[in-house]
Queue: 3 jobs
Job 1
Amino acid sequence: MDSRSNWKAFAKGDLAARNTLLTENLSLVHHVARQLERKLTNELDHDELVSAGTLGLMAAMNSFDPERGLAFSTFAVPRIRGAILDSIRGMDGVPAHKRKYLKQIQAVASGTWAPDDTIVFQTDNTPGRPLSRVSAAGGKAAEPIKTRKLKLASTT
């Protein structure tokens, strides 16, 4: 059977056609898993990534419409990647908003954080001189940044 007839048979509920399509497209899962392994710094188990990606492949197969004229690989790869990333996020244990907050704290500590896509810099090394805000796109200095001192609670 060719791919088009497999898709038609799969749409009618044929399990053999589903297995054939799954086997034919499993290489997409391995390809995406290898790409993500290279990009991510964590030590991740390849088999776990492939397992999560296979679930994404199956979900893509269920929602794919071959009549639209789109190649299945074009349709499936983002869904496979998304399923793998969702699986990794699920293993993390730290909610996304807390991870974003942690990155902001690290950026502030390193002096690289700026709200609203701006670059913050000190115009010279004069103590007490305010920081200036420069648009990342325009490069023109804007108003000085208002800062406030934190009042620490007394322990006595």
Job 2
Amino acid sequence: MTLSDDQRTRLQQIAQDESVEADLRRNAHILLRYADGAETRDIARDVGLSESRTRFWRKVFERHGIRMFEKGFVPERRASTTRKGNTAPVDSDSIDSGDDHPPAHPHEKPSGTLLTDEDAARLRALLDERGFELIGYNELLQEFGPRGY
């Protein structure tokens, strides 16, 4: 991963500023390590995250740049399910055809293929039959807040 001089300077400032939230400082550190050529497994071990979560933050930066450190920024999430009674993030835009769940960033196209109403109904019925519950992004925010991931 390559950083511009401005990006590197800003990430170094974030990583060293103790008034910045710890998870944001950690993410800046992850990106600086990638830019220095470190391997995912080494970075993940050093910051105490899984390799997949470490890669996730690199990909968020590749899509959004320094904006990912702005107040209120929430990265998009993949759809997932849980057994009833538990919660997990679900990208509602990939299930609901309505526009009551706008994308996190209105100028971005949603990733993946959107389901038709009929497909969404079949998916919900199948998951319900097997004991799973889908929750939407708004419900996730209500339960965990903007940084509850």
Job 3
Amino acid sequence: MNEFTEGQRDELLALLKLIQDGHLNVIRSALTLGALSFREFQARYNISKPLHAKLDRQGMGPPTIRAGARRLVLISGLPEWEKAMLALDAAEREHRKALEPEPPAVDPLQPPKRKPGRPKGSKDSYRRVRPQIVARPASQE
């Protein structure tokens, strides 16, 4: 029985997933060339063309080679690219977490502050109190 390295096993699992999803052209390309076209790469990682172009402009795209006029994404460089993307995501999450303001300290002995809104009391306490009209007895003349 053949033993696979972890990278080979991950690549085979990814290929099997693509077979289940019906992306046979991606598998043919990956098995014959060891590289993916941009369209195949975008299908494999479920990213859009604009996002892929943005990653390339920022220098964060996957490793590529030129084959004539075509640029191809190297399959052998994808695990390192994935790790770099995961590390970048974790760093961005930590940065966002550091920027969040700390909640104010709550003194357990102080009553909670009221929220702005209606005055304290019954739900109709904000209405003006009208004076009651008292009927006067008719004068006797």
